[in-house]
Amino acid sequence: MLFGSSEATTIPSKPSQILSVSELKDLNIRYNWRGLVQLTGHLAVMVLGGYIWGNNLDNWLIALPTLVIYGFSIASMFAVVHECSHRTVFANNCCNDIVAWWAGVISFYNSSFFRRYHKWHHRYTQISGKDPELEDHKPSNLKEYFAEISGYNWWVGKFKTYYRLATGKLKNYPYISPTAKDEVIKSIRLQIAVYGIAIALSLILNQPWFIIYWLLPLAVGQPILRAILIAEHIGCSNDNNFLTNTRTTLTWFPIKFLMWNMPFHAEHHLYPSIPFHALPKAHQKLKAYCTVIDRGYLKVNWHIIRALS
Asked: How far apart are CA 156 and CA 306, in angstroms?
């Protein structure tokens, strides 16, 4: 099911050596202020969206579109987890780890687990039996596609994974080393405790805050995030060639902003060390070599739907 427009020139024998050492060094520079500005902007969208949503529950003409934006701003905090897990957002690794953990609380991801999981995804991208992302069943028909896009599979998977990790059942997670086991279990349990406190406060104060300001918006935002993430590798080659196994999607600024430039995904897989703010510049240098480039997530998902039907 390979599709996508090809803008590639002759593919070099070692794609990771397309950029010169000096070019990569320039792109790899991390800035604390860039990470802070981006994070502040993302949080501003979230806070403003939550304020408008919460104060217009009786006016659905305002509430519904605001809920979509607010919900996606919560779901897309996953992008913060992703970038900080690579420790490229801030020059200070401690800042990366702290922000990643709290972004995970907001987006229902756990950064301690995700960092190990994602490292293997980069190491074994699209390699069956090794890439942990391939352990999640990929849609093979329209029913499975819509189950994936709805977020149903994600919610079920999240509850199963959190239960296993919280209870120390890690035998099916080879990417979690014995030395990291205690850290991951502790991190998961602490995150669950945060949710427990939030639920308790809602119940004690007799306010539906947990549902209104987190659970419902996150559920609304998930389909948008799923439609973006499903485009990263599906329909690409099932091998270890980063120029063909990962898709870059050219999209609108609001999506690029809230996804921290993750749509430049082929560039990211080629050079995971490049911070989010430098990916547009990297795209200009690498687009001639990238094989799978599409314009818009609607187009990619439409191709997927047609292929599945």
From this structure: 26
> Could you give the CA distance from residue 30 to residue 49 in angstroms, rounded to a whole number?
29
Residue 12 CB-density burial (10 A; 0-12 exposed, 13-18 middle, 19+ buried): exposed
Query: Other CB atoms closer than 10 Å to residue 190's CB: what's the count?
Result: 13
Distance CA 302, CA 151 (A): 18
Question: Would you call 98 exposed, middle or buried from its count of C-beta atoms within 10 A (0-12, 13-18, 19+)?
Answer: middle
With beta carbons less than 8 A apart as the criterion, state whether 200 and 210 touch: no
Task: Return the domain boundaries, the chain.
Answer: 15-308
Q: Which amino acid is at 61?
A: L
Return d(Cα 135, Cα 40) in angstroms, integer. 35
Residues, the chain: 309
Cβ–Cβ under 8 Å, residues 107 and 78: yes
Residues 255-290 have pLDDT tens digits of 999 999 999 999 999 999 999 999 999 999 999 999
